[in-house]
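ligand=2'-O-acetyl adenosine-5-diphosphoribose
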Amino acid sequence: MSNKLEQVKERLYSSSRVVVLTGAGISAESGVPTFRGAEGLWKNYRAEELATPEAFKKDPQLVWEWYNWRREKIAPVRPNAAHYALAELEKRFRIFTLITQNVDGLHSIAGSHPIELHGSIWRVKCTECGLSEENRDVPIKILPRCRCGGMQRPAVVWFGEALDPEITEMAFSASTDADFMIVIGTSGVVQPAASLAGIAKNAGAYIMEVNPDPTPITRIAEASFRGKAGEIVPLFLLD
Ligand code: OAD
């Protein structure tokens, strides 16, 4: 791998507009369960069954219980070597955009400035007045209420919901302009995040992937590093 690593590093450091796209896999070594791995199951429910507006409408208590489980898992965890390496990498490029699908907040704790495509697990939003605010209670009191009396929901993007258009625009425009994109720990199946690598590729960017397993992004990647993010990403900082 070392020869390949050196070649890719050379390419990275000769690039001027770097975009990094991360998914649940980057937080796996911190102890946050991924969505599609076996650990992502909660009481035999899959994320796709609970992270939807329909599920919340039908049984908000159940959805909040799941989020409380996720909050409990995420609250004590710390960023890992991959999060810290990306925060360091950000300092080495004038134009550097970190786009994450993760809602765990670990990139920010590590010192990065991510575009959070899917929102944050530490924010809640009123289903009546739309007010969004931070709430770090673990566990959160079920069912949480806004000061207007409306029921609050997690301020995350669920399946079937549109992303915030301003955030989407920032992510698409950075991907279109990128000359190097690093895709880390995402299964590459949830849109529109999954299409960002294709957009960057079509616009001429070099695509590099870090994932223990092949994904749909592997096909378009010039370089794929098979392994854990916490072991591979820091290698890109070494001289
Ligand atoms: P997934 O759970 O679908 O995929 C996690 C990916 O991380 C897989 O490809 C794993 O092979 C890889 N992986 C596991 N351990 C890793 C490690 N130590 N280092 C690097 N990679 C590792 O998560 P996402 O692709 O992020 O959306 O899922 C996308 C979206 O689907 C999530 O943001 C969430 C989910 O449902 C919403 O909640 C809207």
